[in-house]
TrEMBL record:
It catalyses: L-histidine = trans-urocanate + NH4(+). Pathway: Amino-acid degradation; L-histidine degradation into L-glutamate; N-formimidoyl-L-glutamate from L-histidine: step 1/3. CDD domains: PAL-HAL. Its EC number is 4.3.1.3. PANTHER family: HISTIDINE AMMONIA-LYASE. The gene is hutH. InterPro entries: Aromatic_Lyase, Fumarase/histidase_N, HutH, L-Aspartase-like, Phe/His_NH3-lyase_AS. It is found in: Cytoplasm. Pfam families: Lyase_aromatic. Keywords: Histidine metabolism, Lyase. This is Histidine ammonia-lyase.
Amino acid sequence: MTTRAPARHEHPPVTVGAGPLTVEDVVAVARKGARVHLDEGALAEVRRTREVVRSLADDAKPHYGISTGFGALATRHIPVELRHRLQRSLVRSHAGGSGPQVEREVVRALMLLRAATLATGRTGIREETLRAYVAMLDAGITPVVHEYGSLGCSGDLAPLAHCALALMGEGDVRDATGTSMPAAKALAAAGIAPVELEEKEGLSLVNGTDGMLGMLCLAVHDLRSLLVVADIAAGMSVEGLLGSDDVFAADLQSLRPHPGVAASAQNIRTVMAHSPIRASHRTDACTRVQDAYSLRCAPQVAGGARDTLEHAARVAAAELVAAVDNPVVTTDGRVESNGSFHGAPVAYVLDFLAVVAADVASMSERRTDRFLDPARSHGLPAFLADDPGVDSGHMIAQYTQAAVVSEMKRLAAPASVDSIPSSAMQEDHVSMGWSAARKLRRSVDGLSRVLAVEVLTAARGIALRAPLEPAPATGAVVAALRSAGAGVPGPDRFLAPEIDVANRLVVDGTVRRVVEGVTGPLA
């Protein structure tokens, strides 16, 4: 999986509690090291609702999470002298993840989103606990969270519990440099006192869907960029394969008015504008009536993916203003149980995005394959090889691409339709949203690699059309690849580094940036 090294405080602070967070706020904290500022008005509400919890602490009537056990153990009334131990025991027992460590950016996103819920004042947590949690995030202390442990209901319990454990000064973390160490040592170095949890605080720290939501936000951000690259790649392939851009005309696309499809078609037209290669076969000598589906229907697939992505973004926006906890302190001071911790709304769109990412990748691979087959490439050498038979050209680049696409198709199988009952059948239906998010991250990484191979292959195919010149926009991509040492025709050479270069230029935004330097902003 492609990883992005965290920056430190290169972005303005993100304010929590004054209004809704955005996807870009999550990216700023998770990847760019932005600090978190707590709104004073939000802190006043945190203090007010904490008094509601305190008023119930000595109540003879049991209150879930305050004076009872948890899950299937909620029937036990916990005496006052054991309630601080109750919260510590909850965190320690729930920090039961296993497997590889989760990426730093995911843990930082998770922590930001938990802090945002705590800052709503609906959880009853203490102000000093919230401040310590944010201080840990700002210090670059990243608790060790493991791949397995969350069923997505009651939220992402195990991942959040590992973060709460670190706040208590227990367990393992990585500091701002990425060095692994005990949490107590990292907190001491940052001047943060370990928190002694009081009534309900352990529950408030672990009972949310923040892990899956954080990964959704990161995926929405990445896919918005990658789907523009998909349009650029499609335009390069249509041009290099001597296809037609007439089919992408706005009036034709308006007959089936999907916004994403219209945007993708517009992008492809823009990328191909003023192409001498396209003009070279706009003659009576060209007998082809229409192109293959992977060329002609590119806007329908990438555009449909865009519309699905915007639906997912609307779900993320709703979640970013949510207060997910159980029980919650209502605005009029009641403490009420609820089911908002169930991850289904997020899990569904995480699965939807894995489906469309796989399909966009599948079409990209088909366009790549057309470049390599002399029966379908309209005059290009077999596999774009310099001396076919002696050289293999991009033969194995397509193998690599096909292997990724095949895995992405497997990753498109939905996680959200699965459910394994837990907690002695008290939690008898779970969302598996965390699992949906984990596989989507791998799928997003796969899509960037598939598109990189198409861009690299199309650039080589376009270069082989010389002396015909490409469109100014596609030519800018060819030049960017060439300046980075990739995509130049010639005898076989070590190919893996060129694929890595192309992938880097896709992921870091270079491919889109050089095109927009010619065309202006793409849709």
